[in-house]
Amino acid sequence: MSTTPGAELRARIAEDAGRPAEIARFLDGLSHADRVLAIRDLRRADQRRLYEAVDGFAAVALADLVPPSTPDVVPVRHYGKNTLPAFTHFEKRFARGRGDDAAKPAELYGFNFQSMSPVTGPGYFVAVDNPERKGREVWVDYRRVPDAATTPLPEGWPPVRSNERGLSVLVYGHMVDTLRRVSEHVTIGSAAKNGKDIGSWFALCREA
Predict the structure, then answer these.
(1) What pLDDT, on a 0 to 100 scale, did the predictor assign at position 34?
(2) pLDDT for the residue 134
(3) Residue 8, H or E segment
(4) pLDDT at residue number 146
């Protein structure tokens, strides 16, 4: 009997959560389009279980989010699915600054692309190694935004805005996402505000 990529991934998470390498191999074997379909079919319980399952499984680095082959100031799209009640499909778009070490950048910067951006703001962030688990996880830190005066933005990106005013503070204010590696292209994240987990997860699939 045929099944969808999403149904197969959900089944593997339910059955193989204790074997994240099997989940990684499954995702690595899919096409980019099917990987996006798979992660965008994940439900809240699937994402929570997957986030817990891959704890300590494999390291994710900034160079996994923007590969060294990508030129400076060229965006890399990560297609996402979150656990919010609505507007669950979104993208995180990352870029590396000009002149940074492509193989080991000090940081990345980016924003969230989603249908409510005109209301909530673009949700700019700076991505760094998780200082508490350096070399293992990545923090997407909304408390920091790129310096609009000195940071070159990729073509078409919106102006940089603070996350600490207007409606942005309700969505992105005081927030840090923690990213964990699932497979070569897929990461799973959990959001925290003021240092406390808020019970919100999301999956990302990097463009091939």
Answers:
(1) 97
(2) 81
(3) helix 5-16
(4) 96
- Structure tokens of 35? 């990987």
For the record, the structure tokens of 47 come out as 């994402």
Tell me the average confidence (pLDDT) per consecutive run of 10 residues in the chain, 208 residues long.
Answer: 85 85 96 97 96 95 98 98 88 97 97 88 96 92 95 95 91 96 98 96 95
State the CB neighbour count (10 A cutoff) for residue 120: 19
- C-alpha–C-alpha distance, residues 102 and 133, integer Å: 21
pLDDT at 17: 66
Chain centroid offset of residue 73 CA: 18
Q: Which amino acid is at 64?
A: D
Phi/psi at 198 (5° precision): -110, 10
DSSP 64-128: HHS-TTSPTT--EEEEEEE-SSS--EEEEEEEE-TTS-SSS-S-EEEEEE-TTHHHH----EEEE
Give Dmax (Cα) for the chain: 57
Q: Give the pLDDT score at 69.
A: 97
CA 164 to chain centre: 21
Q: Do 129 and 90 meet the contact criterion of CB atoms below 8 Å apart?
A: no
- Measure the CA–CA gap between 115 and 82, rounded to whole angstroms: 13
Q: At what angle do helices 20-28 and 44-53 cross, to 10 degrees?
A: 110
C-alpha triplet 166, 170, 172: angle, nearest 5°? 95
CA dist 81 and 95 (Å) reads 20
